[in-house]
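#structure-requests
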Amino acid sequence: MSPEIGAAFGPNLVEVFGPSQADGGPELIQLLTPEGERIEHPDFSFDLDDEAVKGFYRDMMLTRRIDTEATALQRHGELGIWAQLLGQEAAQIGSGRALRPQDYVFPTYREHGVAYCRGVDPLRLLGLFRGVDQGAWDPRENNFGNYTIVIGAQTLHAAGYAMGVQRDGAVGTGDPERDTAVVAYFGDGASSQGDVNESFIFAAVNNAPVVFFLQNNQWAISEPMERQSRIPLYQRALGFGFPGVRVDGNDVLACYAVTQAALQRAREGSGPTLVEAYTYRMGAHTTTDDPTRYRLSEDLEHWKLKDPIARVEVYLKRNGLADDEFFDSVDDECEALGVTLRDGCKALPDPSALSVFDQVYEEQTEELAAQRDGYAAYRGSFESEGVA
């Protein structure tokens, strides 16, 4: 890494880069250990209070409940499929809470925790996976884009949007309510896609205000990380000319601190950053997947000891920062959310056949309106003949 790139992100960031090791390597940025102990890092710090940590615990618990309920609903035939995030709650909540209202998010299909942070009703997520809509939330309301199924495509969308933000003069003004960053979420498997590498090129040469947030859960469906890259993924950024950094993806405090720094760097006009959140997918890739066929149970048990929620709970309890009343209240809130999701999912209305013509464009074109009217007339001809 050039001294210029290192200096742009932090005075000692060059020291963060080092050889990869089994559990993330010495370059792994961590502020809260799996045992619930706070530690310091020379370049990144968590600048919020313990009330915020309690809030992160609540966020992660509710996000996990969304995931648990959605998985159960799929097993009962209420959803067609569900992409689980079990084990990745810290990466999503930590990064999601670092966003400002004007920042824009381009997600994959697994960012349920980030969607929660942006205020997207989880029933909207269920509607998509139930197949009754195409992702019915309005991206303009929460600056949270629609889920992307095409692997890695959203990184190009993010790079292009960031270039637009840049040209609109919403970067580097010094106004904290105007300066804008863009975040693209993707996984280790997507990092092998051409679209992702092309987005790195466009972002780098345009110095675009985008953070590439890579959740390395170590499995591209059934393909392990060692068959995807010869080097740690965050180091790929160096070849494109911008900094990369690896953070403990199961440490919500570190994820917040690192993402906050990367976002601020983007807003100030210093260009893109690759953040690799080193985590582990404790669940299946989706509910159609059987991970027992390709991974060892010992690996799963090892990573359960690094559970992102458990380490925050231990920290709060060990330091007397939260009592039984707090934990009980969070449990009660999770139970209530579960009821809302179960009842709400089953009550989601089936879509109108003509709704396929909605939301194709922001303003419907004459050609599309003619197609809609023609299809409506076609369907109406069957009704006039008494055919259901």
